[in-house]
Amino acid sequence: RTIGDRIGEAKASGNLGNTLKILGQFDEAVVCCQRHLDISQEQGDKVGEARALYNIGNVYHAKGKHLSWNMTQDPGYLPQEVKETLQKASEYYERNLSLVKELGDRAAQGRAYGNLGNTQYLLGNFSEAIAFHKERLAIAKEFGDKAAERRAYSNLGNAHIFLGRFDISAEYYKKTLQLSRQLKDQAVEAQACYSLGNTYTLLQDYERAIEYHLKHLVIAQELGDR
């Protein structure tokens, strides 16, 4: 501010916002991220503007998740405050998405699609969540980003469960399992086995359910995860 560096001030405000978000000070975080947004728009800095929109989306997303942690309901059954917070997150992600499309930034589009899928899932809009996660999946494949691809499969599996499409969920969870083995991520592999066990229980294929739950058990024991 002293040397009149507006872009520097914008970036510093954005960094403050992200730090406050991690500290759980969501309202203060929004103020700082909004300042990042305002200065970026004033300076015609499209990249900064896109980043600020994404960051504000992240703050509302984190706040929504934080508010809903104390509740055990399924996605979609949310108190008004949580719903409004997640809808705000979604709006900022949408604005970010249209701007990064304009900028031709595919990696940023992937991140926006993933987060839109997650917020729509929490809001109980499962069909919309699926559409966004499919877009995320396509971009992850485009970049050869195996970790993002794995997350997309997992999220697609979760959303199909709530639409009662258990057979489709099982296929997505199998792809999650396959990739978690490729990535040598045992915790995620265990999680995929657990999801498959539950899905086969829903499909009333109990033999297979047992098989996957046993695999989950073995990895949990290997990892010493009580």
Automatic annotation (TrEMBL):
Location of this chain's protein in the cell: Cell membrane; Cytoplasm
Residue stretches of each TPR repeat: 150-183
Keyword Zinc part of the UniProt annotation: no
MF annotations from Gene Ontology: G-protein alpha-subunit binding; GDP-dissociation inhibitor activity
Record's keyword annotation contains Transcription: no
SMART domains associated with the record: TPR
Keywords from the named record: Cell membrane, Cytoplasm, Membrane, Phosphoprotein, Repeat, TPR repeat
Superkingdom per UniProt: Eukaryota
Gene Ontology biological process terms, A to Z: establishment of mitotic spindle orientation
GO terms under cellular component: cell cortex; plasma membrane
Family under the similarity heading: Belongs to the GPSM family.
Name listed for the protein in its UniProt record: GPSM1 protein
Organism (species): Ciccaba nigrolineata
